[in-house]
Amino acid sequence: MTRWAMVIDLDRCTACQACVVACQVENNIPPADQSDSARGRGISWIRLAPFYEGEHGTRPELRLVPLPCMHCEHPPCTRVCPVGATMIDHEGIVGQNYARCIGCRYCTTACPYTVRRFNWKLPEWPAPMEEGLSPDVSVRPRGVVEKCTFCHHRLQVARDKARMEGRPLRDGDYLPACVESCPAEAMFFGDLDDRRSIVARLAAGPRAFRLLEELGTKPKVIYLSKGESGGDV
Amino acid sequence: MTNVDRDGAPDRRLAIAVFAVCFCAAAAIGFVTGEFRPQSVDQPIAFNHKKHVVDNQLGCSTCHTSYESETFAGLPDADICSTCHSEPQGKSAEEAKLVRMIKEQRPLVFNSLFREPSHIFYSHRRHVVKAQIRCERCHGNFAMTTSPPRSVRRLKMADCIGCHEEQNVSVECTTCHR
Questions:
Q1: B177/A95 touch (CB, cutoff 8 Å), yes or no
Q2: Model ipTM?
Q3: A and B: number of Cβ contacts within 8 A
């Protein structure tokens, strides 16, 4: 079995937001204007979440944590969807079927990581950005929920290519845009069930932890940090 | 009391008449705006598939050059047509039109009749080469047509799912949706 997972090394991450930009471009995510942002209606599938570390009363240390969809093994979002528009597939990717989504936002409420975004309006790109849309990703209609898919359109293409070449999918054939763009090489991606893969080795290491582990969602985004587990989470 | 009929039911005929008028108006608007009309596609020339595929035994890849190697099948342009038709091969009026277009270097753009929605990933090579699905399975009797139909039966998700279940391949959303 394959279980796609991501490892983010917080000791290497410089919070440069290259992953955020790469994701916006790769997944046809429109830029938010000021009024959208002020109302919290901007869309990003990965964002840098601020966490404060340190004792109360002392000067806290700010830590910025890249926060994509955790692709939980027990996703709370898929269980509340009344129309089956979000589902976890056999390789552990939590997908979103925009054609089926009715925009009820139960899933955005259920997600403890708050990484799902509701589409309040039709996407708009300032010229000439609309010329640069990726044909591999659909432009979402208004009124649906969208989320990080681990760039699974890249998996579709990579798998198609591998099948045609008559070989199994190799480690590194399929990387999400954020992982590929990280200049600090702080992000890793691969098959958690393949014990030789870099994600499996890093996830088994002493620095590994997951966000809100106590909820039992079993996230497949694993963080590495030599400090205590991610601070105030 | 002019609107009371003989049974004493007031305004029933009027209500039916109003409903009928509204219904006809809605249908007319729908038809004019193309809401209920099958989408029709015009082509630059009336290409005769039968002539090429059956009479001259040309393979699909002669014109649809990438259907075995890419996700898209490809539609022929003037370059591909001109390999045979820089001079007339027969006497048809449509061919004469094509030869003229090639000679005058006018752009030749065929319009796609089969289009999957943008939220679907579909690979021709994977279906045709790997799974050995015959073209007719989705495109019907297209190779036997003598002129391009202006509309075709639209493929629905049920068509895809039906075949996937039959072939015992994945029907998970993430396999095709993107």
A1: yes
A2: 0.82
A3: 50
User: Residue B68: which of B14, B129, B10 has the closest Cα?
Assistant: B129
* Chain-chain contact of B172 with A136 (C-beta, under 8 angstroms): no
Contacts of A137 in chain B (CB under 8 A): 178
Share of chain A above pLDDT 90, in %: 82
Mean pLDDT confidence for A26-53: 92
CATH 3.30.70.20 fits domain A4-224: yes
Q: Indicate whether B129 belongs to any domain.
A: yes
Residues A136-152: what's their mean pLDDT? 95
**Whether A218 contacts A198, CB under 8 Å:** no
CB contact (8 A) between residue A152 and residue B119: no
Ordered by start, the domain boundaries in chain A are 4-224
Backbone angles phi, psi at B66, to 5 degrees: -110, 15
Q: Is B156 within 8 Å of chain A by CB?
A: no
Do B154 and B126 share a domain, yes or no?
A: yes
Q: pLDDT by residue (tens digit) across B35-62? A: 555 567 788 989 999 999 999 999 999 9
The residue whose two tokens read 């390789």 is A91
CB A16 within 8 A of CB A185: no
**CB–CB of B172 and A90 under 8 A?**
yes
Residue with tokens 């014109």: B63
